Amino acid sequence: MRVYAFVGPSGTGKSYRAQMVAGENNISYIIDDGLLINENEVVAGESAKKAPTKIETVKHAIFIDEKERKEMIKAIRRYKPKSILILGTSDGMVKKIAENLELPEIEKTIYINEVATKEEMETARNIRITQGKHVIPVPTFEIKKDFSGYILDPLQIFKSKGNGSKPYISEKSIIRPTFSYLGNFTISDTVFRQIVEYLARKEEGIAKIIRTRVENLRRRTIHIYGSISILWA
Nearest 10 degrees: CA dihedral of 129, 132, 136, 141? Predict the structure, then answer.
């Protein structure tokens, strides 16, 4: 089995372009947000977009749950795909998915900026942020029964790269998951500090926590500084 990866930040249009990337690389199967997709058909798995929170979505997407992981491994062995495309937001994420599903090493990674312009990615990101819309790369009838109560809109795409080239024709589904209605959430610096101090107290060699400081850089990056007293035997 040949394993490929399609990587890009969340909301930049990976699922929208997944089938196009798969077709251009002669890839028959796609793994996207917990689903195993062949052409326009969902053949195994459950969409991570059904999860109630973003954290649960990530857990489903990388197959943390043992039952879901075993079912997907069983399905892959049953269908025996010659090639498979894994979608993820980072190199680490697609590598983790491949490891959890016992797949061969990823031999090629395609990045979203290789197939989409900066303007296209910014537009997709803006729609995700302002409207909470997500794309699932299968026709609406394939997932309608599993997404009762969600916003479901079919999206048909027809593209051609020039005379003589094979046109790209696809139907996708646009949904708005539950977690898109929940707004933003933050974790206060105090919580980070309390977690660090709690973990430090569990270490036998630490006698006392003198001071802990959290620096939030507001770019999804946290620096934590600490002073401790250590028992020296």
Answer: -160
Which tokens is 200 given?
A: 């430090």
Helix (H, G, I), strand (E, B) or coil at 215: strand
Amino acid in the structure at residue 164: G
Give the residue extent of every domain in the chain.
Answer: 2-181, 189-230
CA 74, 75, 76, 78 dihedral sign is positive
168-175, strands of its sheet edge to edge:
134-136, 168-175, 153-159
Quick: pLDDT tens for 94-126: 999 999 999 999 999 999 999 999 998 988 887
Nearest-angstrom CA–CA distance, 145 and 33 = 17
Residues 82/28, Cβ–Cβ less than 8 Å: yes
Per-residue pLDDT tens over the stretch 43-83: 999 888 777 777 888 899 999 999 999 999 999 999 999 99
User: Which residue shows structure tokens 């479901």?
Assistant: 152
Q: What is the pTM of this model?
A: 0.66
